[in-house]
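Subject: sequence -> structure tokens, single chain

Hey, anyone have a minute? Need the predicted structure for the following. Not urgent.
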Amino acid sequence: MGVDMYGQPIYFTSFADPVHAITVNTNKLWTGGNSGFNLNGSSDSLTYKLGMWDEGAIRNSHYDIANRVTQKDNNTKIIDHSTHVAGIMIAKGVNPAAKGMIHGSKGIYAYDWNNDVSEMSSAAANNLLISNHSYGTVCGWDYNDDSSRWEFNGKFNEKEDFRFGLYDNQAVLYDSIAYNAPFYLIVKSAGNNRTSNGPTKNTSTGKWFNNDSTYWRRDQNGKWYNAGIRPDSLSNNDSYETLPADVGAKNILTVGAVNGILAGYAKKEDVVGSSFSSWGPTDDGRIKPDIVANGVSVLSTLSTNDSSYGYLNGTSMAAPGVSGSLLLIQELSYKLINKPIRSATLKALAIHTANEAGATPGPDYKFGWGLLNASEAAIALNNALTSNNANSSTDLVYEEVLQNQASKTYTVIASGKKPLKATLVWTDIKGTANNTLNNNTPKLINDLDLKISSGNNTIETWNLNPADPSAPATRGNNKIDNVEKVEVDSLIVGNTYTITVSHKNNLERGSQAYSLIISGGGGAAYCSSNPSSNAGTKLDSVTLNNIVFANTTTNQYIDNTKQVVNGEPAGVLNFSIKSSSADATNNTRFIKIYIDYNNNGVFEATEETAASQLVDLSNLTVDELLEEVQKRMATSTDTKLKRQLSRIVERKSLPAKRRGFTQKARIGGQVLFLRTGEYADGTVGELFIDLAKEGSTLRSLMNCFAISISVGLQYGVPLEEFVDKFVFTKFEPSGMVDHPN
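Reply:
Had a minute. Here:
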């Protein structure tokens, strides 16, 4: 908003955190955040543990960069893109709306993208933990600004670029570096190819936009030539399988872009994909991108001057948000155990705790495993490390090695505090590169398997079908990904579950290191329960909200823990029990309900809180019964039941002008006229018996004669209301009539 007397920029702020941090919950990890972790990247153990490779140099003198970037190569050309990416990670927050994920960082390394592989290998050997790569291979359609022309990068005479989804030499090198540096995680942007579509026609007019109909491509010798008017047969690369080749490496973390969520994530519909972010799958069907983050209208530093900022779009903006956020997870690890976690563990935490995105459960080729949730990833790691993976912990983190022809099992008791799920990630041996179109040969070398079982029920990992990329994820045996995630839809609190890690075939090199995250455990097994006698009271039926259970046996104990109650926080659960005698005895019975409020697996005397709320309907008066019905109708979530109950107790008002009919009748020689009045819905609401028809001069006098009639009372309507209507009628009711419904 100006410059102060010391020449420093002045900004106004609403004291809100930057949107890109709110979107992935990284702001909760910062000092003062509600996680309580107070992380900002300032730990000495993290200094120069993050590197970035980009187009050029960073404006290091920017007020928000503050000379905390060390340029490791000789590039001196300052670039907007590079400066923007750096700011997303380390901006101090001079402009609070552009505060970086690791704003307290004391220093990071920067390189241009030339010779990136050799530089990455050297940096990894020197204990670099995370590197960010907001660039990728040019694939498909690309507009050449210098030559002002569209260029198609596919092979001569091919209609789509073979590089999309390809596992190329660059991907092989990335996987090799990662395998040999188990603590080093490569984070890479997914690409922006879906909006780079070549010369395009207006569908309404049939005319080319900007009168631009021609395109260039390479001939058989690899030289560019003007190929004339673009044919319709060439791919638009605007949908699935638009990931550039090097993005398909197995051991990296590939990041797609979504819109920012200013109010923070609440539900999957909050995650709106960008128009440009590239989608999977890879040619062999692997799930990519791995994760998504905010990459639309991201505010960060620019290189124009030392106080310039701007909004940019792209997966280039999403990736550094993830890189910086995950370095905070490593900072937490240093604080707790004074060392970093493996890159596979870091990747597993990001995938395991990601917020659901997309239309259906599980992963998809648009959003990968979902939206990064840095706060939940930190909580999971903290729970595991501070408890040393104790049985009581809701989260467990394992870094193990699986030997050839072996398997490992882990046992947890569901606590109900979190969904029960497990995520397995391993850094796989490099695969074999290829350069042919849509080669679907699996690139996975060591194929590990993950499953969760309980009794005879086994749940396998998520899978996607590359032949039908828009289809929802299904569960089964995954044979192509080095990420496996299993989620239990309907867990039983107190039940024991077994998580098994195994492998197919033989393991190359004799073993495979892996990382496993488990959540939802920490519970306690419930005591066994059985009837003490075959005599006395039995329960005929039990109703609890949506559960209706009828006992078909006389004295058998029934375990209903597999039933799942539909309820909401602060809601009301309706409970009813019908009991009878198993041996024809007739005596006083006591029914008690225990609720394990503290989830310790023991039903304690202090947890007998629900017993006082039991109502014996057989002992209620009519008014008390109606009151009980009103209560149940108000709290019930069963709309059908509510309609039925409302018909019982509803007091209707007759409209001022109402329809009806008059019927002439003869009883014992006496002529009568029956008149009715109807409710708005057409049901009869009143009945008059006249001894003279409408308009008769003797009608009033005739209607004063006494007659005897029987009236059936509507359920829930007091007798007094009828007396008010039939002033001259003497009532001698003979009893209640059956309810019509």
